[in-house]
Specification:
Layout lengths: L17 H57 L3 E4 L10 E5 L4 H5 L5 E6 L7 E10 L4 E10 L10 E5 L3 H39 L22 H6 L16 H6 L16
Antiparallel strand pairs: 1-6, 2-5, 3-4, 3-6, 4-5
């Protein structure tokens, strides 16, 4: 039952007794109970829809997933070859993919990676594909990169892996590494030249630093801290003084005997 506002309205002069409140509480509880039942039915419906949706997803995706798994297991990305080859950089050749279920599914990328069954992890080559004949397994192309000892001898236990963008990335990384190595060698040579130049300057060049000065150092009076002030406090080389400039000189002279007061006695001719 739907709960209406009119069922709960309070009117003027209405007696507010126990029956008044109990009636309204009962209506509210019944409405809430009805809502609980509706929620339960909605939950059940939601569960049914989710279950039905998952069933449809399984029906649609399961075959595709099974096909993808089977393709991966049967060699969609990997194939083998017993063609005996001695790999070398720039070698143009055709590798015969083994006649196995993998050959019918194998789809090479523009570059594939060649390794050996049970070979060392560091031994690999990149083969740039120019043509692939699925009917006879002929994989034609050129060796564009070699790493490790995979090209040291002839082998016939090849594993061919479709690499998507991996091989191109390896080639680009190898090129970047070669450029970086060349730049490092150039920088090392420049650093060695700079070190030799520095040694020559230190051995034969001017003093590197004297009193904060560098290069060829020339001193003036102002370059020696305090020298100008010290010399300014000394007496001048030539003097022009009066009696008053010499302390107590006038008093000392006044204390001397006045020459005019002296009587000279003529004692004869000398």
């Amino acid at each position: 039952m739907a709960l209406r506002f009119e069922d709960l309205r309070v009117r003027d002069g209405q007696l507010l007794d126990r029956d008044f409140f109990n009636r309204r509480y009962r209506l509210i509880v019944e409405a809430l109970s009805g809502l609980g039942a509706e929620v339960g039915r909605l939950d059940a419906t939601t569960d049914n829809l989710m279950s039905l949706g998952l069933e449809r997803v399984d029906e649609a995706l399961a075959p595709a997933l099974a096909a993808a798994q089977a393709a991966a297991e049967n060699g969609f990305l990997v194939a083998t070859s017993a063609t005996e080859l001695t790999l070398s950089l720039g070698l143009e050749t055709t590798i015969q993919v083994d006649d196995t279920p993998a050959r019918a599914l194998f789809t090479p990328t523009p570059q594939v990676i060649l390794t050996r069954q049970g070979g060392a992890l560091a031994d690999w080559a990149i083969f740039e594909v120019s043509d692939y004949d699925r009917s006879n397994g002929g994989l034609a192309g050129q060796v564009v990169a070699i790493n490790g000892a995979i090209g040291d001898a002839a082998h016939s236990d090849w594993v061919i892996a479709a690499s998507a963008g991996l091989a191109a990335t390896i080639i680009a990384a190898a090129a970047d590494l070669a450029n970086t190595l060349a730049l490092a060698q150039q920088a090392a040579a420049q650093a060695d030249d700079a070190a030799q130049t520095a040694q020559t300057v230190l051995a034969n060049g001017p003093v590197s630093s004297v009193n904060g000065l560098t290069g060829t150092v020339t001193f003036g009076m102002s370059d020696i801290p305090g020298l100008v002030d010290a010399l300014g406090g000394k007496a001048a080389a030539s003097h022009g003084h009066t009696i008053s400039d010499v302390s107590d000189l006038q008093a000392s002279l006044n204390a001397k005997v006045d020459v005019s007061d002296l009587t000279v006695i003529d004692g004869g001719t000398f």
